[in-house]
Amino acid sequence: IIWSESTTYEPGLLRWISLPLVRLMVRHSDACIASGKRAKEYFNCLGADEKKIFTALCTVDIDHFRRVSQLTSKEKCETKRRLGIRTEKAILYVGQLIERKGVKYLLEAYGELRKECDDVSLVILGYGYQKEELQELCQSQNIPDVCFVNHVEINEMPKFYSIADLFVLPSRQDTWGLVLNEAMACSLPVITTRKVGASVDLVKEGVNGYVVAEENTGELYGAIKKIIIDSSLREKMGQESSRLIQRFSIDNTVNGFMSAIEYVMSSEEGSSESCYPKDGASR
């Protein structure tokens, strides 16, 4: 059985070199488990037998994030105070500060937004080799109220989602993007790019967020502005995120793996009795 969250968008010389071997492995596998629609498309491109492809969606502990993120107004104010956030609204990014994550485009879009809306901050939670470059960008372009947070304990993560009004993942490419699951579990509207694997499965355009072109500051700015200036839209989208993420539970992911295992087991049993394998488990 082969599991993968890879998509057709992943670049790299090593991937190109290894492609013949990967294609051979996939075509001779007993079953393939995809992390979502984009991963399933990748298996299809590699020549996998359609009936042997199962889906086990990428997930997080939804209940934990929902429970821990439910702070009181006093607790939210205290968290904002500790971070130095003085504005009413906040946009959140969580992830590495590396070129592939496209944080530069988020900063540029936020900078444009601040020219029209001065009651919003940007919280960037993460670290990486681009941190100094991004901080210098804020200084050179006079982008105000950007809070860089280096490290947070995992049990503290939901608190950061709780003080945000919008979550943005502007990656140039990501196989999935579990932070989108986390943000939706905390009832946040989400914006991401079309080259993020989770965008197809998690984001319903105009319902719980928007999907924009990667490396496109203008599109990103437009999507952020729509949500930030409209409180009723933010609330509605946040509720939809909370509803939509329920399907991405740990139990459903386990069921996806079990379906693949049961299919292989039944096929092996059938092959010992007949030259024809039994039909695959439903999924």
TrEMBL record:
Pfam families: Glycos_transf_1. CDD domains: GT4_PimA-like. Residues 79-240 form the Glycosyl transferase family domain. GO terms for molecular function: hexosyltransferase activity. InterPro entries: Glyco_trans_1, Glycosyltransferase_grp1. This is Glycosyl transferase family 1 domain-containing protein. It comes from marine sediment metagenome. The lineage of its organism: unclassified sequences, metagenomes, ecological metagenomes.
